[in-house]
Write a structure and sequence with these properties.
345 residues; alpha/beta; TIM Barrel; two-stranded antiparallel ribbon; 11 strands
Length: 345
Amino acid sequence: MTLTELQALYDLPFFALLKRAHAVHEAQFPDGKIQLCTLLSIKTGGCSEDCAYCAQSARYNTELESQVLLEREEVMRHARAAKDSGSTRFCMGAAWRGVRGGTERFEQVLAIVRDVASLNMEVCVTLGELGPAEAQQLREAGVTAYNHNLDTSPEHYPNIVTSHTYEDRLRTIRNVQEAGIAVCCGGILGISETITDRLRLLEVISNFNPAPESVPINSLMPMPGTPLAENPQVEPLDIVRMIACARLAVPTAKVRLSAGRTRLSDEAQTLCFYAGANSIFYGEKLLTTENPEAECDRALLAKLGLQTLDPDPTLAAPQADPARPFRPLWPEPSAHSNGATAACC
């Protein structure tokens, strides 16, 4: 989908946009089920990167206590609890730039993945940059999805992160795709971006080949000590519009209502589900921020008559379209509010 097409959708009257997104959602996901995911930070803080929104960066005084990689049994305790509470996907995040094959910490992660995969859950990890060999090893260990968000548009990205590039992110996504792992890739609202930046992000993601399996839409939870600590809250209806546009841009993907749900009323979340969100993070915490408690989520889903999705531990990556390049596609630079241009990957 092009930026021009996305802008036309975004500018539709609110209910016209929701009606169109809901029709696509029903066509792609007729059972209307919601995927419950649990996210655990297996290595917290002390990250060398300078992402302006992140409390885990070692460059900012956020008072977040750094923790080493959790022991396998500790991770398994959380994974079993997640499964018992109804989660079908267990996601593990580690605060570091990336991983390298043959190192002790990567071998530890592979062992953890094998253990979690034995629970018959979908296994998602987010470990930073990956090379082709590391991606293949993760696939063989049992990883079914890899999260690697692009955060925002290529043009705005250097304003948020300088310690790695947009091309670095796309390179990892390509390595993940070629290893046969499903890609989970989305962005963050409220990081000083424009509406055009938000839609440009969707333009890039919608042109991935193959398409991402899931698209998380996060809202910034400003963290004290980070450069974006004073950023204003994203308007709930803006989040709904972004959910609807994501559903239309990537029709076959799960659209995950992610960070920032604590600030949404039941009514706002209901609009998000209607607009096309069909996955949530479920549990007490989402890495370093609060998340609605499981009981509240269950109660809301029950009120709405929404059922939850069963696990698919054999989840395969979406198939590439042979008529298009087999790589994440960065569309040609288009008119942008700040006049910046994007490099090609």
